[in-house]
Specification:
The structure holds two protein chains of two kinds. Chain A is mainly β. Chain A has strands at 5-7, 10-13, 19-24, 31-37, 44-50, 53-57, 65-68, 75-79, 88-95, 105-106, 110-114.
């Protein structure tokens, strides 16, 4: 069990470009979450998957954002036509849902800077 | 909607001393979970401690303990025998236990704790 892995750790891009981040959850975790964290703030929920199904999306997730988890394992988060306001840390978390006991384990995040 | 408030942006404590970080929350639900996460400079969120709202007993994990006051909607974190490695941002978080819901975490704005040698 190697923990939640995110790639890349840092991404610098120019405004208008598309970027894609990857998250590999802890194996056999059936839930995967994406959060966004801006400087000085706590993480904010973006979306989550149970297995391969995307079950909820936050209003923060504009139509420029898309997330997938095609085989219920790794997930990708794509941002199209990036804007400077997209600059943030994007955190992935995974969990295994049991009846009354869910703990989220976070990755180290992808820091996005849009110039 | 649930909210989490951390009113202490920064705190400082001497090594080996005890410090308490405050957190209040607002919810109309009766069953939920509360968490404290630590985020060191590496920025990875690390779970420190977890409390189920239906349990009256305060959770403890080694040097970390909580004071959970359900009626007051208060959830403070006490760190005993503070160590230099405890220096980090600490986030309080809420999770609903509402059946079938997202179970997403709602975070406060964090408290930056500095442990001084």
């Amino acid at each position: 069990d190697t923990g939640v892995s995110q790639d890349p750790r840092h991404k610098i891009t120019k405004r208008g470009q598309n970027v894609t981040f990857r998250c590999d959850p802890i194996s056999e975790h059936n839930r995967l979450y994406w959060y966004r964290q801006t400087l000085g703030q706590g993480p904010e929920f973006l979306t989550y998957f149970q297995n391969e199904a995307q079950l909820e999306k936050s209003r923060l997730l504009s139509d420029r954002f898309s997330a997938e988890r095609p085989k219920g394992s790794f997930s990708t988060l794509e941002i199209q036509r990036t804007e400077q306001g997209d600059s943030a840390m994007y955190l992935c978390a995974s969990s295994f849902v049991q009846k009354t006991n869910e703990k989220l384990f976070f990755g180290s995040g992808t820091q996005l800077s849009v110039l | 909607a649930q909210t989490v408030t951390q009113s202490q942006p920064e705190m400082s404590v001497q090594e080996a001393e005890t410090v308490t970080l405050s957190c209040t929350y607002d919810t109309s639900e009766n069953n939920y979970y509360l968490f404290w996460y630590k985020q060191p400079p590496s920025r990875q969120m690390i779970l420190v401690i977890r409390q189920e709202a239906y349990k009256q007993q305060n959770a403890t994990e080694n040097r970390f303990s909580v004071n959970f006051q359900k009626a007051a909607k208060s959830f403070s974190l006490k760190i005993s025998d503070s160590q230099l490695g405890d220096t980090a941002m600490y986030f309080c978080a809420f999770m609903s236990e509402y059946g079938g819901a997202t179970n997403k975490l709602i975070f406060g704005t964090g408290t930056l704790l500095a442990v001084q040698p």
